[in-house]
Predict the 3D structure of the following.
Amino acid sequence: MSDPIYDLHCHSTASDGALPPAELVGRAKLQGVDVLALTDHDTVAGLAEARQAAQDCGMRLIQGIELSAGFESHCLHIVGLNIDPTNGQLLEGIGRQQITREDRAQKIAQKLVKKGIPDAYPELRAAAGNGEITRLHFADFLVKHGYVATQQDAFDRYLSKGKPGYVPTAWAPLAECVAWIRQAGGVAVLAHPLRYKLSTKWLDKALGQFKAAGGQGIEVVTGRASIDDIRLSYGFALKHQLYASQGSDFHAPGNQYLELGRLAAMPAGANPVWDLF
Ligand code: AMP
Ligand code: MN
Ligand code: MN
Ligand code: MN
């Protein structure tokens, strides 16, 4: 028997994914995934549906979340794996993150109004249903209404730091996010470590704090990682004695280079984070 296929990072309509949780699980099954973690931004709202769908098709679902965490002036993403989504401290913490998110969405929309782009908030609030609004929703809105050509353009021209639609946001501090995950019985993993554009010195500093707070893992293999990316990320895992995770960060069908379960091999000798489940 071949090794099971793990994908420990993806999104549903509970946040900025395109597929409802049950459809996401169905797609993962078709792609040959054996163990899937659903990790929506600052919410556990998709997990019950995903759990049921996984049970129905005989797949293992790891209950997860992706938290936005403050570190100095940066926002880092912390994936929590194998959490108890009913834990009171976690729920209280993410309740506050959700208020921050909603408030930020309104502020981003107000900034867009000043740039001559009306009506984003009501449209996105309606489209997101009970789900969390992220900047990806704004990017899709800007594409849909013809203000930009692509999601990347939307970030480059409006949504990234320093651009007219950017709103600095007071996310919970890194150590607090890690604590919520630990209190909920989960494993905290630093998501996509190379995407923050931090220097080695600052990433080391962040990982030092992360580890001191109880963080245990780092994503070594992500959806579009090159061999060099993997080698670099694995270097940080070794340096900080962190378990290695892998996940596609799948959001939506339609990108031929990014699919559930489609991941490069973990470096030989890595300690996989699933040893902790
Ligand atoms: P938020 O947590 O609201 O700041 O939104 C962040 C989300 O936007 C990420 O999880 C990605 O899904 C998406 N995102 C961030 N940067 C980019 C980018 N440059 N291009 C496309 N999507 C991005
Ligand atoms: Mn996202
Ligand atoms: Mn992320
Ligand atoms: Mn993600």
